[in-house]
Fold each of these.
Amino acid sequence: MDIKTLHDADIIGITTAKNAFDTLATAFGQHVENWQSEVVNRLHNSQWTGTAADHANTRMQNLENELKAAQQEIGLVSRALQDAYDGFAAAQAHLISALDDAKTAGLTVAPDGGITWDNDPKSPTFAGHGAPEHAKQIQDRITAALNEADHADQTINARLGHLATNASNGTGLDSATAKADTDAANALQQIPAAGTDPNSVKGWWNGLTDEQQQRMILNHPDQIGNLDGIPAAVRDKANQTNLKNLIQDRNNQLKNLGPAPKQYLDPAETNGGPVENPDYTEWKRKRDTLKEQLAGFQSIQDRLDGKVDNGLGGPGSNPPLLLLGIGDQGQGRAIISWGDPDKAKNVSSLVPGLNSTMAGVGGGDAMTAKRVYDSAVSSAQINHDTPSVASVFWLGYDAPQLEGSGPSVLMQDRAEEGGAAYNKFLNGLRATHEGEPAHMTAQGHSYGSLVVGKATQQPGGLPVDDIVLVGSPGVGVDKASQLGIGADHVYVGTAKYDPIAMAPAPGMFVPGWAAVEAITNPDGLWHGTDPASQGFGAQRFSVADGSVGDSHDNYFGKDDKGGDSLPNIGKIVSGHGNTITREDPR
């Protein structure tokens, strides 16, 4: 596709063809009805019986099925032509808009896409000092419009080619074929359900024209933005829209709560004792929940808007910050990425643990992923590689909280649910990655390491090359080899004074259990064998000893107290795990 072809395309002809097929489908439908009433029904109502009658009735029924199938196929041609018109019309409009803006800015666009302008400040047609930047923007818009037209051309050509083949070889007369074709056309208008195989989602998305894709993003940002198998840049665009919708919704709900009911019941109703009004209690509960959700969503919006320090300007300079997931399920969902995981050669996905919240993603917690990004970039540079990194902070589950969720940190139900979601997310990154497969690293901190462990036990395993576990209370298995990627690719960092590493947790909470646990599994932690133990069989890397008060949170270089931890993680993420500073297992 070139500029002149798209600009001059008479797409009205597509509408003319579409209308013709509509007319044909209508006329064909009338013929089917006439056949039914004039031939089939008369035959059924006749007194004709016997073998010949049975054969005739069977043939009539088969012919009726063929006619109905043909009618469906004709209708599918019309639908494909309508989608073609919509796709080409959108691409053409985008191109014309870019060309008009170029003319207004004093830029001249050549047929081959080259852009020139008057660069003489003394000339009456001087395009201005910002011309180079304007030209780059116009060039990008023109390229996008041409790509949009190419995409529409390819997808529609495939659909029409399939229908033409059916027509030429007679398969379009088969009821099953017509039904399958109709189902496929209908599926293009239906968003796959959450949890659908990411490769199937990718195929569905690629089967849409650009115009259809834009309509999906506009009309269903909450679904598109959180669907594994959708490209990262698209998810970011949809989620940024959905985030604004979530913020507006919480503000509206707070406004609609109305004034607070009186806090206490009248003394006469309670025999004189101060008793809180149930209406007030419920009002306050709703208000506090909405405020907490709003604060979390707004903190993420502030980070995306650059109102929060992202630690940019370091080794990783200014990577794009993408919002790959946002939602209000449970405690809230938020997934952000420094760098585009669809384009990076090295992709890390960190699962946080105990006390992680949506507000923390917008606050300082998610900076762990940014520090991993910077460390991996530094490692690549040291090893004379061209840095190409994406670092994801994945809060796609309800992390246990010390307050409000009881002993959930001792349970595995949240990890089971989170592990299934995390597995699907990483399979989605595999499906949408461009070019050669990325080197992918799964990371789990604290309870998040149990989530990673559970994710490895899903059907098909976890599609990663390396696993990093830090501050782990156990991962649900007793051997590194059981994580499915080979023990040599499982790396563990545990600080000497990390409380998680200092106590076999069952004994901390259930004294009678401690003795049994110590006998049956001296390396046991809350959720299986201690990953830092020799018996687990992973590679242990050096970290700072730390102190009981801070070591659990310092694996990612917070306050520069993590020692070798963050540099080692950066080496693993960048594909240089063989260069880590090692430490002997316990």
Amino acid sequence: MKSGFLFALLLASSACAAEFDLLITNAQIADGSGAPLVHGSIAVKSGRVVAVGQVTGSADAVIDAGGKVAAPGFIDVHTHSEDICLIPAAENFLRMGVTTIITGNCGHSRTDVGKFFEEIEESKVALNVATLIGHGSVREQGMGGSFIRAPSGEQLATMKALVDQAMKDGAVGLSTGLIYVPGSFAKTDELIALAKVAAAHDGIYVSHMRYETVRIFEALDEIIRIAREAKVRAEVSHIKLSGPTAWGKAQEVLTVLDKARAAGLKITHDQYAYTASSTGLRQTLPDAALEGEHEDFVARISDPKQKAAIIAKMAEMRARQGRKDYSYAVIARCRADSSLNGKTIPEAAKMRRGSDALDDQIEVILDIEKQGGASAIFHGMTEEDLQIFLEHPLTMVASDGGPRRFGEDVPHPRSYGNNARVLGRYVRELKLLTLPEAIRRMTSLPAQTFHLKDRGMLKAGAHADIVIFDPEKVSDPSTFSDPHHYAEGFTHVIVNGGVTIRDSAFTEMRSGGPLRMGQ
């Protein structure tokens, strides 16, 4: 009698069990392929999409999309998120629909990728995190503080071993930052040797190229040579033309890349939707001034002869770019003096020295670097070039941002609004891209380019990374002067089946984790 009752109870329980963990209904579905939107539902079970279309069945939870767009979670292929374990919620990314990020860009990364992934698991991040292995970080570890030279055979072997181990641990490729010390001192042969190691593991070579100025065609020749000789897929990071002397050459740049692709090379590129970049203020200084340790820099600017040589090189750099002064640079975060945050260099010079003359601007830059440096925003591109790059079918949308603590410093707004800006300004307002095509640039194209398995598409078997947004309301209220505003219009964000944003509110769900090559 007792066993019969238990059997009946089990049957009743089985009959009542829901077919799906989550069912999204009444959605305009953009599957990530670039195909037109279709009305339907999406069913999720055990962190995977199990059905898309006219889906019926019971579910533990139901989200009525209310006719909004449901798309694959956005994949941001260019971020600087080595500190993700300190800000594991990464709410600024989630609130603009990003469910997967790739860090380790521009040559800077954690060199122990295995340990990095362990820390990501322990901190329970809210989104998926993949990484590149950074050439600059590898070079620094392999060569010590002496950079203005080629590595010895032993040092190159050490660097190759570091790249090899990182790839074995799950890195998706090798990145370079060839405007940054120590990467700026590397010769092309060194880069080819290391790219071959990444290529042996099916990795990609991702490059912040040596020049994004009027000399960009030299840099393009280099990345094309590396792709050809290392037999590696290549990616141009944050494609742009920086400085007045380079403006207007966007179509020429794309023509060079298209010709390389026609010759059989696999080269793509990514872009953020702003006409200002952001990096260290030290990029206004010549590389040779930064070689070695911080004490070496301090010694150089303390020596009148060496300081004069540095200032002369700064003048050459301004002339090449067509700049008269540093009014295009805005301090985002000054380590030694937060009162300078949000100020242009002339404004900072006026505050510190009582004058905004060019000589005083230079002295402020040198002094800031002496005191520990600063990050800055550089207004150096044109809207016309940006739009030409954005229209190209192989341009992926990527922020070049990182996880942000709300209200801290005056960072570039791209970390809060990049994807929303594309959808609001360039799709809805300017109609530069169709909505399905813009979504493809944020989803399936990045997944295919970086070989992220079962990501970037809404189809049965895919990981359940899903974003729901209103295309008529999506916007980027974050600005350069007032950046700390989350993107608007995104009502639901789902990561691996976990609802992290529900009805526009962060749920504290952290269902992300490390994303290794091939996963």
Amino acid sequence: MLSQLHIENVAVIEKADLVLAGGLNVLTGETGAGKSILIDSINLALGERVSREIVRSGARAAHVAALFAAVPARVRTQVEALGFSCEEDGSLLISREITADGRGNCRIAGRPATVSILREIGRLLVNIHGQHDNQTLLSPENHIRYLDLYAENTTALRSYREIYQKLRRLRVQLKKLTMDDAEKARRLDLLQYQIDEIRQADLQPGEDEALEEERAKIINAEKITGSLQESLQALQGGEDMEGAEALTELAADVMQSVADLLPPLAPLVERLKNLRYELQDCAAELQNRLDDSDADPRRLNAVEERLDTIFRLRGKYGERVEDILAFAERAEQELAAISSSDEQADQLRREGKILAAQAKQLAANLTESRRKAAQKMQEKIRAELAFLEMPNVRFHVQISPLPRLEADGVDGVEFLFAANPGAPLRPLVKIASGGEISRVMLAIKNVLADVDDIDTLIFDEIDTGVSGRAAYKIGVKLKQVAAARQIVCITHLAQIAAQADRHILIEKTVETGKTFTRLHVLDFEGRKRELARIIGGAAITPLTLQNAAEMLEAAGIASTTTGLRIEE
């Protein structure tokens, strides 16, 4: 169960610690005091999506930490499977921080974690019913989710969806293979033409680059030869000039003649000799290049024609010769696939029949499971609604066959509802009032609580649209459910607040121009005054105080009961 919640810089909450107990925990306060901020804080701690606007104005970051006590063994096992571990006493601390610029970090048992893992663990620990869940109930496409949860179809549904997705992928493959004869003939002709055109060109990898180089060599042959000859003459000299080789040799000999007189010149002499050898190597390489520089102008036409062929293929199949060859390889593979498509299609059809039979069987199993569960579920919901002051209500889970396999099987599920005797069953979305929707949702949550083992349920204003005796019954029902698990309920109704095992007051104050939200765990007198405020509004009279005391005593809360009063 959720034992403690530490909050820092979340909206108007600068710093607060919420200490919860087992049983029914109720939170009340004036409108705008910050009750919804507590839900946002819990969502933040559990890894759910929140806006960075949640960070208190002027603060660097919002931070929430949640301590869970006596974590169930099932959850501990899943936490360990994700690479984390609970404390020896079975407790688990999770925390999350989000900065004003939207960045954040998460921790599980003191170790860094991703938001997705935090969310996965959080949903094993807490089930939050917010006001938007009532709208979810009004969407028929969500009704099958509630039924499957009650029927405990998670494993069966996963098995069905695996086969269904395989079947869908197979049908997509089959559709690609299946084409009419005329289209197949056109495609085969085109592929064969493309393959023949590329293969007849007899392209070689890198050929285009080699031809470009050869073309440039032929076109610039005269300039290249002249430059080579001029450079070689500069190194070797001619009839009327000394070359760099001879001059370097002369410089070395002259310096050698005085090296004995000036020993520091010896290294310079050695460098001049090495330079001469290097110039000789350069001259030899220039001569080799000059010997190979003969270019046949008649070769230019052949090179140009070959480049024109490659250029034409480039415009169709790729920028480089390698791209053109790769295109041809893919075309050959497609040609082979289409040529054998009839055989492949037959094989896929055989596999499809097997998968379809498996999917239909699994879907039929789901249908049977749903029909059995629907009978029990609707009876339990009717009993819950009768307790919640809707004795004449009729609630029916309608299961209709779909024309084909879908992601959830072959069943369409919709909740039908009739609040009054003699009224026909009609879709819930069309006839239920706000108060009726709230009670139906509470009934569904209570029924689903029988099949899940989440220890903490949080209800945010489950009492919307109800009052009087119906509100009292909701309070009693919440207390009954809280006997087996922890309930946290935000409410505006005294009838519900009176049933609480722990009552927490949320107050908003303004100090030095800043707004603060503070939490108080109330004792008997504090609870009596808060109930009186809810009953009578701003004016708390002896009569409202007496009514509040009677409500607490009727709920089994004795006047001797004390509670810890905390102000953060």
Amino acid sequence: MEDPAVWAYRSPLDIKDRVLKVVSEQAVEMKEKNIIAPFVFRKETAEHRFSLNYATLDDCLPLFCQLQRASTLPPADQSHMINAIVLSRQSRVKFNTSWLEDLYEKIVLETQGDRNTPLAKNPGRIMLTSSRLYFQPFNNIDRWPVLKIRLKEIKRLIRRRYLLRQLGLEIYCSDNAPVTHLFLSFKTEEIRNQLYDHILQQDVQLEEVGQEDMTLRWQSGYISNYEYLLYLNSLADRSFNDLTQYPVMPWVISDFTSDHLDLQDEKVYRDLKKPIGALNQERLDRIKERFVDMPEPRFMYGSHYSTPGYVLFFLARICPEYVLCLQNGKFDHPDRMFNCLQDTWNNCLLGAADFKELIPEFYDGATDFFVHKGIINFGIKQDSRPVADVELPPWASCPTDFVHKLQDALESEYVSSNIHHWIDLIFGYQQRGEEAENADNLFYYLTYEGAIDLDSIEDPNERAGLETQIMEFGQVPKQLFTTPHRRRFCTTPVPHPTSHPVPKLGSQVEVRGDSDSDKRSLESSIEKSLEVAEPIIKTVDFSKIRTHLKYTLHKDAVTDAKLSVDGKNVFSVSQDSLLKMYSLEEQRQLRSVNLSSMALSSCLAMPDNKTIIVGSWDNNVYFYSIEYGRVLDTLHGHDDAVSSIAWKSGTLYTASWDSSVKIWRLPQPEPGQAFSSAEYLGQLDHDEGVTCLDLDPESRLLVTGTKDGHLCVWDLYTEYISNQLAVHHGRINAVLVSPDVRRILSCGEDNYIKVLDTGTGTEIFTKDVHDEILCLQWAGGLVMSGNSAGFVQVWDMDKGQILHQSKAHQDAVTSIDVAEDGRLLSGGYDKTVIVWQCG
């Protein structure tokens, strides 16, 4: 695939040598008219002009050219070159001493570090003098050219963990300071400690309370449970300024269905002695069964209780820009958003990979994150309603009433008597090791501090991958206690603070676009969302399937079989090089077409039910017209056999043994329009032959499997690989992306079926199925598979169990298809096609 080319040169209109024209093949558009909305990704040649106000082209063009050259390199070399450019540029920048506030200030220390804000870090020079702390960013996008904090304004100084390493320093200041908090990170712990020690040696007056004093004050009832939990979060390096280590709070209420909430009834509370993942015994039993057979390092939970994604899941209504930043310019699917308290709790209780705890906002008096002000278009849910306010339990009359009752619950006698158990799990002796295993509280090893030494990893790509995984997958808080935490003496409720002094996430987010025209635009976009809603497979009982129709037309193994969109016909291809069309209504063959001199590998029907696309071992892709009974076009696509094909939203994807996936523009013809040939868009290169592929429902992600067992995850907006994992020993036969895009399923010739977390690549489930699975397909919330022994199987992947299996073919099952109306189809090495009846 050619990298998006960028050319920069002086415009003929550039009289003052300050206008730059950039020609790009792709661009990302955001915040049109300053309205927060999903980014628009345009893959087309376009011109952009920039007027430089503070520099000339001669100042900037050499750097632009360096960056343009870097963009033509492979991803690994590209990152290396960009890092070298940035390092060279930053090393030449010194602190501008003209910014010193007082000529008589004595310079104590000058160093370099990053100022961290949620989802962003800004590098710069740090200067400590005898009276002030200065931060001078390397760029000019910050509010202050130089941030100046007087030392007497510093009230708290905390050494923080950053990316599971002791690299952070958080500074809390008085209300008179330009900022009330500053979170810095450094390249090494030594540099961080050096600045920390030098600040302490200056004339500063810090407000510190020892851990023992705070614990005694909490035990005696002088501070609330809420205040004590916030203190422990801070002590354990959880910060409101770091989404990867955002403060964590417990679910304390488990009743979200009753009309009345009786806080005197212990049945309404969650069991605080158990982690979220252990509250449902049935789910816990499945997790333990998987845990026993897991290779080292073993873990019980494949996802964490606190991640940036979970924080923004709750705060999406007040932090939409952070959501777009985290999710590559897109909001989550409307039905996966924080829409209902009961549904969220049920998913945490029953979901296979949802173990999230709450955030402080649930207990601090704020209610704005429950309310949708109607400005942002988050999309339309499956019930045809737009995303609105969060649906509260029946016992809450409004968001304020809900939060007040949660506050009362957190300070109740039951929680006060049992919260020390939860502290043991999150901050204490049951957090890690053997005690964590005994308490059913063991997470993936990369979530623990000290699990890996990033400084020892020399490969920059491997290190960057691990850093990304640590940032996105969740981090266990720093362990504070190695023995059981003491119980509270006083269980009498104490006054609960109405707000927290630290500005919370989203407090500075400005949402605009409430004019009449913007409202009309929003209504229009909602209507469009309703028009393009994806069809959903109707509810069918796939746990019971039986043969409805069986026929044999091919002379060799069936390689792929598909139901037509209208459900009336079956299309199948075979190693005998024939495309067959079979009528289910008349139960007879309608077409038999010899497309090639070699085997055909795959087929699919276009949504208009007029064209069949077929991949062949002769390197070609064929387009066959059902209407006219002839080949419309032959695409000479690859240098080796075409192994798999997929089409969605006007784009065709073809995989091949030549180690590539090619992307083609292939819009569906409008009524009355002639068929148009596919237009080449780009190529995704692999190290080995590609055997299979699958797309997520919105065509944001492409997953491929290769002959050598590697699974590759591609970002289709950037057309770059985002993850590459050695998942199987030998060929991968099939891959699937789950409808919620959180999991990837794969099966290979090593007889294993595996489930991976999409974001981190962590193996959530793995099972040796003894007989090789050759094909996979989603069927509603279940998964259908076909194996080498001739069985069609129905899987519940949330439980990792086979619900049903039927002996289908006399030899291996080579293909599975599930239609939107719930009908099931299988093809086999025994030359047979079977239509199945469900329910």
